[in-house]
Please model this.
Amino acid sequence: MNMGPDDLEAIRALITRYNIAADRGRIAELAACFARDGQLDFPGRSGKGRDGIVEALTSGERNPALTLTRHHLTTMELLPGADTDHAVGRVYFFVITNAGLDHSGVYVDQYIRIAGQWLIAHREARIDWQAEASLNRPMVTR
Model:
């Protein structure tokens, strides 16, 4: 099944909204990028459903020295799924904090269109590399 240019642009906009919300610390807005029963998996944590995603992202201690986070997206592959309301993707990213280049990895995503809106059905954030001086908790997965 082919995805049209409008679908691709809508998914790209969704991915962008997710990262801007994360960088601004607007976790409820980030969770709203997911389907109501969506799932987010990242090293050491997982959340299912929007409330579960908020809980997973806000639980645990935060390093008070971490005052700036910026996610930067690089290579992106978006492909049609089993039908016109599903798609899959891989998005490479790197993250800069106030300590410099902090970590990099890939989002492995499943998207779903519900009532005409593309949402994340499942996202696995895999961390490929993390700086020794990272201000985030250890999270290398490869």
